[in-house]
Design brief:
The protein is of the alpha/beta class. It has a single domain, classed as Rossmann fold. Helix content is about 40%, strand content about 20%. The chain has helices at about 15-25, 45-50, 80-85, 110-135, and strands spanning about 1-5, 30-35, 70-75, 90-100. The chain has a 4-stranded parallel beta sheet with strand order 2-1-3-4. Helix 1 links the parallel strand 1 and strand 2. It is globular. The two termini are about 15 Å apart. The model has no long low-confidence stretch (mean pLDDT about 90).
Length: about 140
């Protein structure tokens, strides 16, 4: 099964979701992309994933345009900006799902607050993707 996780910057939420979903179900062919990709994955996203033993340090943000000619079983959008841009995605998609998550990339007073913010979003992503995997992909 081929799944594309779509966000705006492809630097935090979609990258964490990519790593989590691939970890939950190694039989899936998971990709992530952005409508306006950043230059790199956010270091704190890499760090909080490493806490779970999931390495996304080698992930690179990519533009969704490179995937438009491919067929997808699922396209999962993980932020409101991507939801608005998703109809522009013209690839062949069987199912579109939107799982909105707050952008963890905001101004924090210190690194501890930043880590907590990223962990909170990561944990919400885990919960939703666990449900998605159990209810949708395992039936």
């Amino acid at each position: 099964m081929k799944i594309l996780i779509l966000c705006t910057g492809n630097s935090a939420r979609s990258q964490m979701a990519h790593g989590i979903l691939q970890h939950l179900n190694a039989d899936l062919d998971v990709y992530s992309a952005g409508t306006a990709p950043a230059k790199r994955v956010k270091p704190m996203a890499v760090d909080v994933m490493k806490d779970l033993g999931i390495d996304i340090s080698h992930h690179i943000p990519v533009n969704v345009e490179i995937y438009k000619k491919e067929r997808w079983d699922y396209v999962i959008t993980v932020c409101d900006g991507a939801k608005e841009s998703c109809p522009v995605f013209t690839g062949k998609v069987k199912h579109r799902i939107h799982l909105p998550f707050v952008d963890p990339d905001m101004k924090y007073d210190d690194k501890a607050q930043e880590r907590h913010g990223y962990m909170n979003v990561r944990d919400k992503i885990i919960l939703e993707l666990f449900r998605f995997n159990a209810k949708t992909l395992s039936t």
